[in-house]
Amino acid sequence: SGWRAAIDGKPAEPVTVNSAFLGLRVPPGVHRVELDYRPRGWVWGLGLFWAAVAGMALWAARSRSATLRAAGSGAP
C-alpha cells in the first residue's frame, strides 16, 4: 500500500514477490521504471506539519506585533 509504479511514464501495477518484496511485470527491452512511495498517512502528516508551521508563524507574527505596539505606547 502506498506504492506507485510507472513504466515509460504509464502507470503499472506493483506486485508482491516472495511475500516481502515489490516487483513489476516489465516487458522485454529497455524501459524507464519509476517507483514512488507515498502512503496516505505520510501525505496527511506533511499537510498537518505545514499547517502547524504556518499557524506558529502567524502566532509569532501577531505576538511580535503586539509586543512592538506595547513597547511603543510606553506600557510596561
Biggest sheet architecture: 3 strands, antiparallel
How much of the polypeptide forms β-strand, as a percent range?
Answer: 25-35%
Rounded to the nearest angstrom, the distance between the terminal CA atoms is 57 Å
State the total count of DSSP E strands: 5
Shape: rod-shaped
How many helices in DSSP terms?
1
- Give the quaternary arrangement of the chains: single chain
Average pLDDT score: 87
Order of helices and strands: EEEEEH
Q: Structural class from helices and strands?
A: alpha+beta
Task: State Rg.
Answer: 25 Å
> Which segments are poorly predicted (pLDDT under 50) over 5 or more consecutive residues?
none
Proportion of residues in helical segments: 40-55%
Strand order of the largest sheet: 2-1-5
